[in-house]
Amino acid sequence: MDVYQAVVQRRTIRRFRQKPIPSWILKKLVNAARLAPSAGNRQPCEYIIINEKAKINEVFTTLHWAGYISPEGNPPLGQRPKAYIIVLLNTQKSKKPDLHDASASIENIILVAWEEGIGSCWIGSVNRRRLRKILNVPDYCKIDSVVALGYPAERPVVEKVSDSIKYWKDKYGILHVPKRNLKEILYWNTYTGGLKNG
Ligand SMILES: Cc1cc2nc3c(=O)[nH]c(=O)nc-3n(C[C@H](O)[C@H](O)[C@H](O)COP(=O)(O)O)c2cc1C
Fold first, then answer.
1. Does residue 64 line the site of ligand 1, with CB under 6 A?
2. Same domain for 81 and 134?
3. 131 with 64: CB under 8 angstroms?
4. How confident is the model over 99-150, as pLDDT tens digits?
């Protein structure tokens, strides 16, 4: 799979098959994260892989899923993530760590996972206080995001945005994800948008 294919085909996955993810793949994902671009090359990101059953269950209790369609978007029992990568920003490595660093590394994780046939959900809506306790994360590390991982048990589809950007589920349980089209967001050589607002 080439990179563009992965980018175009990837969708956020919130229902997972229960097949375990081999440890070497999880390690490969963090290696991909490690090599992401980094502001000033300070590399403040650190990662915790969660692949033990008890911990996986605990982490799950700290996460909020698919706000627009809650609680329908929650992964049901038997289709929950098989692993997580917790992305931290270590303030001892960079006093004011750049959030872009975490984002770049997370996108690497997500795309390489997709190439391996693994679906993911980038989760920013996290009970960080609780997660910090569960994982024994020290105060000098910020918890940026959680990446939920597992082999996909759903196939969301892309739609054109018509009147709303909110994703929805149809009567068959398929997730539809509206994306703005190029016409609305691409300009050549000078900004020509904003006409609607005068
Ligand atoms: C910074 C960030 C935070 C997100 N947080 C959550 C979250 O807390 N829970 C969730 O279910 N999805 C979360 N998502 C996933 C988005 O809902 C998803 O990317 C969006 O609906 C578009 O779908 P797509 O990834 O299939 O293109 C987050 C995505 C990003 C980039």
1. yes
2. yes
3. no
4. 999 999 999 999 999 999 999 999 999 999 999 999 999 999 999 999 999 9
